Amino acid sequence: MREIVTAALQLGPIQKSDSRENVVARMIKLLEQAKAADATFVVFPELALTTFFPRWFMEEQSDVDQWFESSMPGPATEPLFACARDMRMAMSFGYAELTPDGQHFNTSILTDTSGAIVGKYRKVHLPGHSEYDCERAFQHLEKRYFLPGDLGFPVWRNLNANMGMLICNDRRWPEAYRVLGLQGVEMVTLGFNTPSVNSQMSNEGPQDRLFHHRLSCQSGAYQNATWVVAVAKAGVEDGHPLIGGSLIVDPNGKIVAETATEDDEMIVHVCDMDACTFGKTTIFDFKRHRRIEHYGRITEQTGAEPPAV
Ligand code: CDV
């Protein structure tokens, strides 16, 4: 058995006025809870250090850049790294990344138990729009503030396991999981900020949103025989509700732990990486069963092309 005691560390709402230092103090409190539960691996949400700022329309680049980190760790996050290092805990969390040459990404990192960053992923599937949209109940401006990720979907060896990362909307795309699956991934971590209602369909509420979220995480786990740890930033941020429902899903696609609140909350599970072996060597033995000669459209075509009517 290759067991990793894994904690999903959900964050409750972060208001616009909350400082990074305040958020990092909350994250450290959760780390301490995870340590007390014997966890060696912890996962925090997408854009964990700030409010979900893409809901706000901004025109001045200096207003946008205030939400980004130009170094990791930086002055505000160094205490988090120090705490994880002292407690010998590996972690993954998301933040808005501003590169030295001025590029903006929605990023997640993976550290080992010494606090070293061993992996970086930049969100590929950016949802939303890039200009103010008066048809929507609220804005979702990820396409305005971020570039699509340029690092692909890598998998790293960490804690004696094969680990990969996705970010929020990526979980709805089977291609994203499959590229990780093709590298033998055993643990997929992903953070999310999912509004509780669909900004373009007011009758799609929290129960539907949670259903689609669970469906996406459970199918990704099952079809690639991998653990999936999906962690929310939840609750009401400046009047805008986000779903909770942080999950740990086993390689059979079963939910083994789920948060019950929309606040800071920990769920823990002992995840055995060897539990991935059965699926990977039987029904989802890719080498034996995949038929790539029929999958050309997946990479050659973006939009649907139905037959002529
Ligand atoms: N942060 C996100 O990527 N949110 C999307 C919303 C816009 C649907 C999500 O997939 O949850």
Q: Helix segment count?
A: 9
Order of helices and strands: EHEHHEEEHEEHEHEEEEEEHHH
Please identify the structural class as seen in this structure.
alpha/beta
Q: Mind telling me the CATH superfamily name?
A: Carbon-nitrogen hydrolase
- The spatial strand order of the largest sheet comes to 5-4-3-2-1-14
Through-space gap between termini: 55 Å
CATH topology: Nitrilase/N-carbamoyl-D-aminoacid amidohydrolase
Question: What percentage of amino acids are in beta strands?
Answer: 25-35%
Q: How big is the Rg?
A: 19 Å
Mean pLDDT: 98
Task: Tell me what the structure shows.
25% of the residues lie in helices and 25% in strands. It is an alpha/beta fold. It has one domain (3-300): 4-Layer Sandwich (Nitrilase/N-carbamoyl-D-aminoacid amidohydrolase). Helix 1 runs parallel beside helix 3 (78-86) and helix 5 runs parallel beside helix 6. The chain is globular and about 55 Å long. 42% of the residues are buried. It binds 3-methyl-2-ureido-butyric acid. 3-methyl-2-ureido-butyric acid binds next to loops. The site of 3-methyl-2-ureido-butyric acid (CDV) has 10 residues, from loops.
Record the SSE blueprint.
Elements: E1 3-10, H1 20-36, E2 41-43, H2 61-65, H3 78-86, E3 90-98, E4 104-111, E5 117-122, H4 142-145, E6 155-158, E7 161-167, H5 174-181, E8 187-192, H6 206-224, E9 227-232, E10 235-237, E11 240-242, E12 247-249, E13 255-258, E14 265-272, H7 277-281, H8 286-289, H9 296-300
Parallel strand pairs: 1-2, 2-3, 7-8, 8-9
Antiparallel strand pairs: 1-14, 3-4, 4-5, 6-7, 9-12, 10-11, 12-13
This protein binds 3-methyl-2-ureido-butyric acid.
